[in-house]
Amino acid sequence: MTEETIHYKSEGRIATITINRPDKAHAFNISMLQSLYKKLEQADNDDRIKCIIIKSTGDRFFSAGYDLKEIQGAPENVKKITEWGRKVNYRILTLKKIVISQIQGRAIGFGVLMILASDLRVFADRPKEELYIHLPELAISAFPQTGATLLPLLAFGLSYAKHLLYTADRVGLEELKNINFPDRIFALEELEEATVSFAKQIAKYQNPFLFLPKAMLNIMNKNYIEACMDLEDECGKMAYTKGVNVKELDEFIKEIYKNYP
To answer: Does the model's pTM come out above 0.90?
Structure first.
């Protein structure tokens, strides 16, 4: 492994993108988001590649989300990280290639969103204190954008999306199994090899049967996905406007109901 924070390798039909910032719990800064986006594009444009695995080094964190130190007190950085976070998650959703997240540890914020945006998810079989998903945005006064309302809704439905956002509960593997979220679960020591083997099985499908169903599902939801991300951005601007009172919020909400029928 090199010192790159986003490492890329391809072998046969599989591309592997590895998040490599263990000293910061694999938290994303702007340059990492930009690099991840480029690596996703690289894999999608490589005719040899059929599946993309997204994983991270070590066994403590899949990703702790955004690097909050980079954006604190820096409105321009907030804007950039929101822009690139949205781009990455939208790209994962709409790539031709099948994206598989390999989750070996804790996932927080944007780390969870990458998992939700992926097509398939492979988890290590670990107890809740070692592996969970966690959306703390509302609890830490960070407005849920870059897919933080849309992606839980797509993955879990309205009721559980509200549960994740409003309670900020840490959800472990047993709870995720109860809602049939993991596609595969392997022992931690087998995770690396087993995920590649799983990806190779998916990659055996003929290209039209691999890529077209994903394209169809995306096209069926394309306008909805884009509108939801636009709505997140519009509401985010309002949320961060200083001095907004309840009456102004009420008028704003009435207006967005009209604009997003």
So the answer is: yes
